[in-house]
Structure formats: structure tokens, C-alpha cells
């Protein structure tokens, strides 16, 4: 069974190492030895750990080699990954990929290619690294009805928010620490602005609800606007701030929501104690109840572990002439805009301390039919702060309320707005 | 695709309900409708929720029906379950079972029958109920090397120990509460004495290390001897007491250990916060690092969710002429006796308060080459208590040390002995 590896960065290097070190075990588990046919890289002189004879800069030629059975793609990004994978599948090769961006952007095309060619397309490593998550969602829970998936699926932002929570640091300071420690990339945009988490949310929602969800369907807010004051405010109400990927299915109309944004969650929530660069995904299903999966969501070896697991499955399938489960998108559900999504807001206002302020503020909420759960007034005089937590209301009504509050003469500043997730 | 259901208790009833309620989804996910061909029960008049025409008391005849494709077994126990499943597989039917006792006792026979007949034998529901665990171990981590599996896999004992920890109650009182709330059966022996957890440990160790482990290989200690004093002692050192199923592979000699016993774990350990009747399993693998799976380990609906997930997989396999992964026991590793297992002990001694006591006690440890990590003396005079925690040593050396301590004149009583698991 011959494997072509596309890309040899942090993950690819570990894939090569594991293929070599665990060759005997892999062969026993598959029923045939796995052989690395070639490794496509941009700069062959940068990979001293890979036998020179295996290295090539021509990924297309490697994919086209008739002796290659399985193509493993760990390049990332849309192109040339998409073209290479489509070409591989068209030629009858099975594919293992860790490419969340490509799957979230254009999964339908890839799945169709796999179906047309009768080959496997596996992508466990694309979400939450080493955590076995996609296989449980698409197979173990295939007999159940998943209602909600809430995950911490980006290690960089979780590290930043964990540091802000534990040290009181601001966003910039915590991000600088993450960069220094290697938890954030030189350009942290994909992580910090939630693009990475949104791609994963699209993949999770699609699998969980048997429908198609693309990255463009996912409402996305990053963590750059989260302040030390927000984190302190969360702490004061027994909460912590996490960047959550939330996918849910409305049991009433069957619509699906997928969104990524920072949110306050109670410290008693199972996700609250997920610190540093760890990932965790919380799943609710009708019969199974509450489940949680926890582990390392990134890094070379953990991601390579997920790639290898897929590789064993795909190789075993080819050997027995079988095919794993393909795309399951039969439900074809409407993706709900974030404005329709029921949620709760935590709002902190700098206000003038004079009679009638609370009445004016309360009126702004009432005008949008948003009911208030708790109000707390901190400070007095010029420093008066009003902290409000709403009951559940449509996100659009909450957003409109905030807009009105900004215009209210008694409100000096809307100091902080953040969603609150209860459970 | 026709399904025969053997047994219709708590789990079977939920299987029937889910097959009915989710018929459309199941058909879409499998590619063909699942039809319940019959339900074998002992007393047909006790199942008002099942159409009378489906009920039969003749399980053997139901299994033999030529139109049955898949047999689901939720009777439990060794016989008649074994005979029925062997007969089903011999006749070319695939099998889904939740029967941990049978798999742990005689899994080899079942797996051989599945292999010989070329059918599927799936058993996700046999360990940790709804938690997708076996599929991740046998498939997602198939490209990795698992080093350790530590689980809370019995909800009854976890409820009892959680109550003892939170209320200070003794074992009998906490068990009575568990019984009253329906968390413990009228005869709680299988749970309390660790038989249930030991069966699950055998299954987990076999899957994790690709070798055969039976219930008889598992060292088993229950929780009946855990006292309120033990729990208080654990609390004093920042620990809590859990009944753990521990499976590990010695990287040096490749031997495998499987044991079930109460142990003190630090409150910071991911398993420490798993309360009530929840289950959680912590997995360490070379590349993946630390993973944890959490959810409901028992109950009708959660267990039925796992059964249905297997049923979808097995039905899909039959439809496509494929077969899932069979037994993987190629590694054929030695199962290490508990005496050779490196562990740590927490020992609490009632001692005479006079000079030379610590020297005599320390000498007993030294004689077995057990080194002491911490010593704490609580109380004075007649109430003097010496609390010792050892470093890691072979279990046999620790056990022998305890025997010597019991015979030491300065030791009035060995008040408590419990293993300590660090991480």
C-alpha cells in the first residue's frame, strides 16, 4: 500500500516519523505494509529527516504516479491542495487530509469527487487535532439525533483567553506571550479573528446535522475586541470567557445555526476548565445526552496521530475493497442567520448617576422585547457602571438594543457586550 | 435490512423507541430502511410499547429466521447470549451487542466466529454506555501507540464515592442513597465489587494494546472497604477517591497491566471532577498525547444510542458488502500480574507515640526497598496517626510492606491503605 505525502511541515514531518517508527504495528493493523512513495515539498533541502530519494517538488506528478494508492495532504490552504486532491480522487486514489479551510470552503466538491470515484475522503485531523471527534460524530452517533455541538476548537485563542483570565492581562499582552511561546503564528489573523474556528464549525455542523454548511454560513467574531475589563466582568459573575464554536439544530423548524464568537460561560461548565492550548468539544444528543471530548487540538504529533488513524482506515478499506461512510447531507437543512439565533447578552454600561437612568435603559430593552435577567450597579457618581444580563432573545433584537443604548443620552459608553452561554 | 432484538429491558425498550422514532433518519444514513423483525423476551405481556406481533419468547427461532440480517443482543450475561450470538454469526448475520461480561469472558470465541463467518461483531455499548470510546480506540487511534487508559467506567460506584466525598457519608449510607435513587441495583455486587468495571477494563486493554485480555486477567478490588476516613484522608492531601480501571503497557518489556481498584487522585486530575453517575475515560497515546472522553456510562437511552450507532455501521457494511475492523490481537502481549505493577500507596497507621516509632516504620519500608515520599504525623499521645505516601514501587513490595507493618509492635492498626494515581 503506497502513500504519497503532500506537504512536510510540522504535521508532515511527524507523519513521516510515525510511518517509519510504527511500520510494524501499522502493517499488522492494516494487513499490509504502508510504504511512503514520495513526499512533495517546496524546498527539498529543508527536510533532512526524509530520505532524499523520496522528496520531490512536483506534487502533481507524485499524485499521478500509478503506484500511489493513498494521498495524504497536509499542505493546507485552498490551492494547490484542491486541485491535487481532486486529481488524486479522479485517478482512483483515496485521500486523507487535514485541510479544514478547503473542506469548509468547498467540501461539497471534494465529497462529490470521492463519491464519483468510489474512493475514501477522510479528514479527522481537520478538526480538533488528535481528538477523535469526526468519527464519533459521523459513526458512533449515527443512530442518535445530535442537537448541539459547542467546542473550544482553536488552541491559540484559548491560550490567549486563559492567560487573560489567569493573569488579568489585556489581549495584546496575552497574544504577545502566546507568540513568544510558539502558540501563535507570526500572522495570527486566522486564529485571532476566528477564521480557523469558523472552518471547523462548518465541518462540525455539517457532520452533526447531516447537511451542508460552509465557512460562509458561519457567523464569525474573533477575540481581538475582548478586553481585560470583559474578562474581569465575567469573573465577577462566576464566568470565564472562551471563544466558542456553537452549532445547533432548532428542534422546532429544523434550521441549523453555526457561529463562532467569544462568550461568557459559567466556571462550572465542563468547557470552562479547558485551559491553555487544549481543545474540547461538548456534544448533546437526544439519546446519548451530554458528551465531551478533550485533548490536544494542534501540534505536529497530535495532528499526525489523527492523520495516521485515517490512513489505517483508508488503507484497510482499499485492501478489503470497502469504502467508508461518505458525505451524509441528506437532511438539507436551512442555515439560520445569527440574528434569529436565541442567545443572551452581558452588557456593561458607563452611565450618568442620576435618577431615571435605569428607567431609560430598561425602556431600550423593552422596546425590542428583550427581558432583563439581572442588573447590577457598580460604583457611584461619575464612575457609575450598570451591568445587565438579559434573558434569551433573538440575537438581532439584542444587537438592536445595544445600538439604541449607544445612542441613549444617559449612556456615556457601552463598555462591554458579550454573549453568555449557560450550558 | 431486518433486525432481531434479543432482550427488551431498559436498553432494549429504548432501542425499539429510537428505531421507530428515527426511522427516516436511520434509513437515510444507512441507505435502506431498518425494520424490526422481532423482539425476544421472557414475558411478552410486560412490553406494552412493542407491537404484540413482534414479541416472541423463542430467541433461538428468531435468530434463525432467514430474513434477519442483524442481531442486536441486550440480554446480558453469558448464557443464553453466547449461544444465540454464535448461532447468529454462524448463519451469516452481523451482531451488535452491549454484553461486556460475555466479551470480557469469552471475546476470543465471539471474534473467531465473526471472522470465520465474515460478519461484523460490534460492541460500542459494552463499555461506557453512550461515550464513543471503542471506535476511537480501535479506529481513530489505530495509527498511534496507546500507552495508558484510565477510566471511571462504573456509574454506580462513582455515584457512591462522589457522595462519600461531598457529604462525608460512609460507604453503607452512600450505597443506600444510590439504591434509593435507582443508581444501584437491588443486588449491587457486580458494581460494588468491581466485576462490571473489570469486564470493561479487559475490553479496553484488549482494544488499546491489540492483544487479548480477559476478565480473569484483570486485578479487581471493589469499593466496599473504602471508609469515610479514607475519603477524608484523601481530601486532606488534595485528592479524591475514585474507582479506576487502569490499563497500561510497559514500554520496556511490552507487558500489559489491567486492574480495577479504588485510588486517590489529585483534585486537579481531569477525572477528579467526574461526578455522580457519569463516566469518563482518559487515554494517553504517544503521538496524540492526553485525551479524555466524558459522558453517560449507563441508562437506557444513552446505551441505546451506542447500540444504534453500531447498528447503522453494521447495516451500512452489509449493504455495501463491506466488513468493519475485526479483532486486532496480533501483538499478543504478556499480561503482567498486579504484583509487578509500579504504583504508589497511601498508608495511614495508628501508632504508639513514643521515640523510635518512625524509625521502626521506616525500616519496614526500607526492607522492601520502598522509598517514602511524604510522612505526616497527626495527633499526639494515644491518638497518634502516621500518614505515609510512598514513591512508586512494585505493587508486591508495597503489599509486603503493609503486611510487615501490620505485625509491627509499634503499629496499633493499619487504618487505611490505598493506591495513589498521580496523573
Describe, in plain words, how this protein is organized in 3D.
- Two copies of one chain form a homodimer.
- Chain A has 423 residues and is α/β, with parallel strands linked by helices.
- Chain A folds into three domains: 2-129 and 300-320, NAD(P)-binding Rossmann-like Domain (Rossmann fold); 135-296, Dihydrodipicolinate Reductase, domain 2 (2-Layer Sandwich); 338-420, ACT domain (Alpha-Beta Plaits, 2-Layer Sandwich).
- The first copy, chain A, is 37% helix and 25% strand.
- Chain A has 14 helices and 17 strands.
- The first copy, chain A, has helices spanning 10-21, 23-30, 59-64, 81-90, 100-117, 134-140, 155-167, 171-180, 189-192, 195-209, 228-236, 300-320, 357-367, 395-407, and strands at 2-6, 35-40, 55-56, 70-73, 94-97, 121-122, 146-152, 219-220, 239-249, 256-266, 278-285, 289-296, 342-351, 372-378, 385-390, 393-394, 411-420.
- In chain A, strands 7, 8, 9, 10, 11, 12, 13, 14, 15, 16 and 17 form an eleven-stranded mixed β-sheet that branches. Chain A has a six-stranded parallel β-sheet with strand order 3-2-1-4-5-6, with helices on both faces.
- The longest helix of chain A is centred in the last third of the chain and has 21 residues, at 300-320.
- The radius of gyration of chain A is 24 Å and the shape is elongated.
- The two termini of chain A are 46 Å apart.
- The model of chain A has no long low-confidence stretch (mean pLDDT 95).
- Chains A and B meet through helix 2, helix 6, strand 12 and helix 12 of A and helix 2, helix 6, strand 12 and helix 12 of B.
Amino acid at each position: 500500500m503506497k502513500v504519497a505525502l503532500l506537504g512536510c511541515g510540522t504535521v508532515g514531518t511527524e507523519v513521516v516519523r510515525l510511518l517509519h517508527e510504527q511500520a510494524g504495528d501499522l502493517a499488522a493493523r492494516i494487513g499490509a505494509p504502508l510504504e511512503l512513495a514520495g513526499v512533495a515539498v517546496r524546498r527539498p533541502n529543508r527536510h533532512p529527516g526524509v530520505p532524499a530519494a523520496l522528496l520531490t517538488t512536483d506534487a502533481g506528478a507524485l499524485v499521478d504516479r500509478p503506484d500511489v494508492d493513498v494521498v495524504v495532504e497536509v499542505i493546507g490552504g485552498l490551492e494547490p491542495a484542491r486541485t491535487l486532491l481532486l486529481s488524486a480522487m479522479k485517478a482512483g486514489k483515496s485521500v486523507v487530509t487535514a485541510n479544514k479551510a478547503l473542506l469548509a470552503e468547498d467540501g461539497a466538491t471534494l465529497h462529490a469527487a470521492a463519491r464519483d470515484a468510489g474512493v475514501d475522503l477522510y479528514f479527522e485531523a481537520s478538526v480538533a487535532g488528535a481528538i477523535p471527534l469526526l468519527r464519533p460524530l459521523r459513526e458512533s452517533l449515527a443512530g442518535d439525533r445530535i442537537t448541539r455541538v459547542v467546542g473550544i476548537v482553536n488552541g491559540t485563542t484559548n491560550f490567549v483567553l486563559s492567560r487573560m483570565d489567569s493573569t488579568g492581562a489585556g489581549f495584546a499582552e496575552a497574544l504577545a506571550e502566546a507568540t513568544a511561546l510558539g502558540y501563535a503564528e507570526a500572522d495570527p489573523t486566522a486564529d485571532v479573528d476566528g477564521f480557523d474556528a469558523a472552518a471547523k464549525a462548518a465541518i462540525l455542523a455539517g457532520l452533526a446535522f447531516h447537511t451542508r454548511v460552509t465557512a460562509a454560513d458561519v457567523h464569525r467574531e474573533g477575540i481581538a475586541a475582548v478586553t481585560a475589563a470583559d474578562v474581569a466582568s465575567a469573573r465577577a459573575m462566576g464566568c470565564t470567557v472562551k471563544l466558542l464554536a456553537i452549532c445547533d439544530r432548532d428542534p422546532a423548524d429544523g434550521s441549523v445555526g453555526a457561529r463562532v464568537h467569544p462568550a461568557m460561560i459559567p466556571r462550572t461548565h465542563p468547557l470552562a476548565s479547558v485551559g491553555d492550548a487544549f481543545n474540547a468539544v461538548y456534544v448533546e444528543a437526544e439519546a446519548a445526552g451530554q458528551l465531551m471530548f478533550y485533548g490536544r487540538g494542534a501540534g505536529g504529533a497530535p495532528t499526525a496521530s489523527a492523520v495516521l488513524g485515517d490512513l489505517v482506515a483508508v488503507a484497510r478499506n482499499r485492501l478489503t475493497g470497502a469504502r467508508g461512510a461518505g458525505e451524509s447531507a441528506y437532511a438539507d437543512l436551512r442555515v439560520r442567520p445569527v440574528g434569529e439565533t436565541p442567545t443572551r447578552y452581558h452588557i456593561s454600561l458607563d452611565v450618568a448617576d442620576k435618577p431615571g437612568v435605569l428607567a431609560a435603559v430598561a425602556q431600550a430593552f423593552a422596546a425590542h422585547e428583550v427581558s432583563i435577567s439581572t442588573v447590577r450597579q457598580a460604583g457611584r457618581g461619575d464612575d457609575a457602571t450598570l451591568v445587565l444580563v438579559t434573558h434569551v432573545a433573538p440575537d438581532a433584537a439584542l444587537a438592536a438594543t445595544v445600538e439604541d443604548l449607544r445612542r441613549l443620552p444617559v449612556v456615556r459608553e457601552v463598555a462591554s457586550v458579550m454573549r453568555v452561554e449557560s450550558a
